[in-house]
Amino acid sequence: MSAEQAFKARVHVMLKDGVLDPQGEAVRHALGGLGFEGVEAVRQGKVIELDLTAADAATAEARVREMCEKLLANTVIEKYSIEIV
Amino acid sequence: MKAAVITFPGSNCDRDLAVAFEGAGAQVVRVWHKDTELPAGVDIVGLPGGFSFGDYLRCGAIAARAPIFSAVAGFAARGGHVLGICNGFQVLCESGLLPGTLMRNASLRFVCRNVALRVETADSAFTAGWKAGQGVTFPVAHHDGNYAATPEVLERLRAEDRVAFRYLDNPNGSMDDIAGILSQNRRVLGMMPHPERAVDAAQGGRDGSVMFRALVDAMVNA
Question: What is the ipTM of this complex?
C-alpha cells in the first residue's frame, strides 16, 4: 500500500458560456463608472481550495472531480476546472 | 393526512408552512435535517423557505445533500408528494428532483412583495382547487428566484403541462415567466412564491389556503 501524500487542489467554478451573469455585468458597469474604459465583458466565478491526501496526484484529481460533480459545481449552469498545486 | 415539514439550519418559513398545513386539517410532524428517515405514514413532505446553510456555495446546494434528503428523494421516487417553496424550490432543483436552476434575480435586488400569478394547470394535487388560467396573489421574498433551464427543458415543461404557475409581471427575470413547476409524475412542486404566507386574512390574503385544502382533500380521499 502506497503512502498517502498531501495535495492542494484549486477548483475554478465559472458560469458556462452563454449563461447570463448579471453580477459580472454589474461589475462591468461599476468599472465603467470608475473610468476604466474598454472593458468588454466581466464574468464572475468562484475559486475553491482544498487540502487533501491521496496516493498520488492523479487520484487526488479524480476525487476532486467527483466532488465537483456531486457538490462543488452545479453542472446545469456551471463549468469547472481543477489544478493540483 | 400527515405532512412532514423539514427544518434545515437557516430555514425560516418552516413554522409558517406547518401552520398552513394544520389550518387545512393536516397533522404535521416536524423533521430535523440530521434525521435519516421520515416518520411512518407521511403523505407529503414540505421543504420550507429560508436560507438553508446560509445559502453557502449555492442556494439549496448543501440542504439537497443533507442526511434527511436521501429519505426525501426515496419518498419522491416511490410516488410521494413533495412541496418545495422558495428555498425549498432551490433545494429541489439542486437535488435534481426538478429540472433547471434558480439564479440571482436579473435586477440583482432582493424582491419582497405580493405578485400576481396565473395558475397554469389544475392537473395536480397542489393546484386542483383552481381552474387553469385563474389568477392568484402570493408574496415573494427572494434574491435568487430567476428560473433558468435549457431550451429543451423549457419545451418539455410546456409540452407536458408542467408549469404550475407563471408571473403576470415577472419580478426576477425567470425564463418563460416561470414561478413554479411540477415533476413528470406531477407529485413534486417547486415554486418561488409563498402560498403559506397567504392563508389568513391578517397576512393580506387567503389565496394560499386553496392549495393546502386541495392537498388535504386529495390525500384524505386517496
Answer: 0.85
